[in-house]
Amino acid sequence: MAPWSRSAGALFLDWLAPEAGQSWVDIGAGNGAFTELILAKSAPSSICAIDPSDAQIEVARQKLPAKQVELSIGDAMVLPYDANRFDVAVMALVLFFVPDPRKGASEMLRVTKPGGIVASYTWDVMRGGTPTQHVWEELDAMGKPAARPPSAEISRFAALKSLWEELGICDVETRELVVERTFADFDDYWLSMVVSSPSGVIGKLSDAESAELKRRLQARLPASASGAITVHAWSTAIKGHKAA
Description:
This protein is α/β, with parallel strands linked by helices and 244 residues long. It contains 8 helices and 7 strands.
């Protein structure tokens, strides 16, 4: 999934267009992939990156410079930071995993300085925008439904805008971020999107079910004359400023 996340993250940061030299907090940083993008594209003065998984934070620790990035293990709904600390607070592909999105967004707002940026994006689960949508739909048809993010409803533009406005965030803007990925052939797609899936799809299926899923996906995915398969995904993004 990393190529999808990097592509969407790059579009998100281009859209945010923050000034250089600002302090950031990356909430739900995982293994630090988006934090790396911030370092590469946005010239921050510092970043605090936090995730509930100690294993993920340990991976991030191996690749992120300690002088610029402070790594912590913690809960998005109870951030261990003082109020009004950061210029930019972001959740990248995270808010729909937060059990209480309002609490998560409230915490993001709390730790942001007056006038600072509060922003998030998630795959558009409710309109079929996830990179794994084809896999999910075929598993559903087989009676083997894949688990969706627990707060999938927050991926709707209407839900995002309502939440940001309810919290009093100013200058609210939204944008759809569309990305695509081309696979050399179906075997490339199968290996990348199913066999290597972080959800461990294959491990939950029998050999017969795996073969059936493969047949279904191969039948539904259009290939070019060369056999290449191009898949699109899109996310709902939102940004605004904390009232001064």
